[in-house]
Amino acid sequence: MSSDDRRLEVWYRVLLRLYPREYRQRRGEELVTTLLDASPPNATRPSARSVFDLLRAACLARLKLATGGNVGRMVADGARWAGLFFCAYAVLRNLYEVWWLARCLAAGFPVDGLLTLSTGLEPAAFCLAFIALWQRWRVGALASATLLVALGALRALSYPGPDNWGFVLRMALPQTLPLFAAALLETRSAPRAKPERIAHLVAVVGLLAVVKTFAGHDTHGVALVAGSVALVALGLFDPRFLAALIVLRSNTDGRMLIGALERPWDVRDLLAAMIPPLFFVALTSIQCARARERMLRT
Q1: What is the extent of the structural domain holding 82?
Q2: Domain end: 20, 49, 67, which one?
Q3: Number of neighbouring beta carbons within 10 Å of residue 89
Q4: What is the pLDDT of residues 38-77, one digit of tens each?
Q5: Which of 10, 19, 235, 255 could form a disulfide with 23 if both were Cys (CB 3.0 to 4.6 A apart)?
Q6: Are 61 and 23 in contact (CB under 8 A)?
Q7: 259 and 125 in one domain?
Q8: pTM for the structure as a whole
Q9: Interior/surface letters 204-225, b for 16+ CB within 10 angstroms, e for the rest
Q10: Is the Cβ–Cβ distance between 127 and 115 less than 8 Å?
Q11: CA dihedral (38, 41, 47, 49) positive or negative
């Protein structure tokens, strides 16, 4: 083997480290030999095209290994992990609001009792919805998600001003629907007895009734709710649509990010806009790694 071929082989072996270890042990030598035979004579480094093809194939191999060949399952698991973060995020946000209300009360400001009640109950309902989803209590998760929407309506009614209905559509529903969609995904393949089917129907009708009640009050909110409900329905047939629903939720945070950039001194808005999408990506990656470990153990 000439020095040029040896140098080219070193390049290919370095690039081959991008592949999973199991793939390298099984087909690494064969792939290096094939690449050396296909390379032009007197080449000292791989072409840009071959590097791109190797990178693309390595990413596909890692994705297939991490998901066991089932990308839809990865999206479903990622949605459940995102539910964990949204749960903690909602609790912390509402604890901050409880602290803010307590300061207002201590200072003697009048605060609506309905607002105080809904602020205290919303994190509890969110925790209940997530625990029900995590434990595969599908009907409980749907009912809890509907309760979250009702609490959002209660909070909106507590705010003065003509735009209080739009508050529900812009804030409460986008936060609730990803969890609701994940619960529907869990429900899709589950055998259900007659009482469970009835409870499931009641939960869905309750959510749609709330949406219909608010639909005439905010044009932008109507489009947001219609898109969310459509993605929930499509998620019943293909879990990958749940990813689009999470992106829709992140889009709400994106609007918050734009507002924060217009007011760069408001760090809280900036963090509130950036943290949820970043954590969703991180938790999905963790879940992929765990799925890969489970597959290797079996």
Answers
A1: 71-297
A2: 67
A3: 18
A4: 777 777 777 777 777 777 777 777 766 665 656 556 655 5
A5: 19
A6: yes
A7: yes
A8: 0.35
A9: bebbeebbeebeebbeebbebb
A10: no
A11: negative
